[in-house]
Description:
- The chain has 13 helices and six strands.
- The protein has about 350 residues and is of the alpha+beta class.
- The protein has three domains: about 5-105, Up-down Bundle (Four Helix Bundle (Hemerythrin (Met), subunit A)), CATH 1.20.120.1810; about 115-210, Arc Repressor Mutant, subunit A (Orthogonal Bundle), CATH 1.10.10.10; about 230-340, no CATH class.
- The protein has a six-stranded antiparallel β-sheet, with helices on both faces.
- α9 (about 155-165) crosses α11.
- The termini are far apart.
Amino acid sequence: MDTLTNEQLCTLAQSGDRQAVSRLIEANLPFIRQTANQIIGSPARESYLCSCGIETDDLIQAGSIGLWKAVAGYDFSSGHKFLTYAAPAIKRAMIDLIRQYRQGEDTSGEIVSLNDAHNDAIRNLMMLPSKTQPEQIYIEQETMEELHEAMDALPDRENVYVQYRFGFGNSEDHPLTETARYFHLTESRAKSVERSALKLLRQELLFEIPERAYTRAEDKLTKALVAVGELHAVELRLKSQKKQGKKIIAAVYEYLADCDGAWGELHYDFKGGTAEIILLAEWDTVVSHRFAMRAVEHLQKVPITKLPEKFMLTFIGPEQLCSSDKLPLEQVIIDDWSGRDEN
């Protein structure tokens, strides 16, 4: 069995061969481990994950389960590599594990301090000492760009507060009492602003920024695979949305088939439960329609309280019809939207 490929092992696993499942996971452990290391990304994030109880081995185990779950859906006859198909499932399993731990964090409202274990990483990033050791220089270069990106994501009030409080601009930090006096705040109010700012920074530095970087790398790989005919993909970007109160009731997405040609447009009426193809992408109309249907199927499952600005979807191939392709081109009725909970 040592000479069998991933695809052959997967076929055996689908027939009920448990040994094949084990060998498939074992053969792909280097890739799973590499994915875990990419998600961890830096010593600061690794320290934070450890404080939450998540070790690298936990991510590897979650990734192995993700690979195992991908076995059932793989189609050997598609001609696509198994690992190409399973890679997104491996990553999602690891991210889901991290989210589960984050949801279990204590949210009792206790004042957050830079001396807390969870914020040591942020303190190190924001108060980098001037050292000449090569490793320290490398760490500073690697982290300062991320820190600036995280700071830019803060609301103006929190951004200005953090810059003054922790010496972000001139490397001179100020005590809490002095900071409160400078901004004409009570000490308790200053603590509240600080708690909010550090929570947002931690979220950006340890999760949002790595997630965006991983997504960019994943999209780049997808485009490369599309270029050589290994995958098909539809790229979407949000053009406009309409709200009624806090609820999104309609949106227009532009879509691009296989990262080439002109952009088409899709209109989604979440309130009425319908989707309409406004403009087909400039390509073969039948195939373009199938790419549009792939986008429709995905957005059926997206919580409409917060729509993604842009994203890319992959699928086996335009030759495999979506179930909704049998509906009229002008309008696709989506029953799932009309009756689901929007909260």
